[in-house]
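Need tokens for this chain, all 191 residues.
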Amino acid sequence: MIVLASASPRRAQLLQQVAIEFERQSADIDETPHAGESATALVERLAREKAEAVAGSRRDGLLVLGADTIGLLNDDILVKPKNVTDFRGMMRRMSGQTHKVITAIAVAKWCSQTQQCQVESGQVSSEVTFKILSEQEIAHYWSTGEPADKAGGYAIQGYAGQFVTHIAGSYSAIVGLPLCETVAMLNRMKD
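Here are the structure tokens for all 191 residues:
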């Protein structure tokens, strides 16, 4: 049994896919980027802080898995769209382009002897190429409601999967949790 420090239904589905038993406890952390913080540093820091916050609040020794995912297009972080205008601009920029998706994972365990968390973290970078999108496709996709709460404004496992012409890297990491790396890290942290 582990604890998933996330309310993401996609991350929960991915853990269920590989038969990992878990319970959920969301972490309440400040996700504001630090001044001068790179995207890769940000995503890994957030995954670590989520895992550490939950492990520290529980102090029961269970492994806690934290994760965070961001998109990058030409070094610009792709965040959740604020509104339809923001979404359309984001989709136009990604149309016909390749962008990166970086997912960081962290596994934390409270150590009663040291009164601190032991943490291991890492990240997986993948690339996603979109076809050229028409204005009608962009408008219709917004009308589905799917993009409103998604970093980068899309869910590869949903309707937007039809926009993807090429993936280089880990599909599960793009969805929100790199399964191979997650299972390996959980196994290393068991002892």
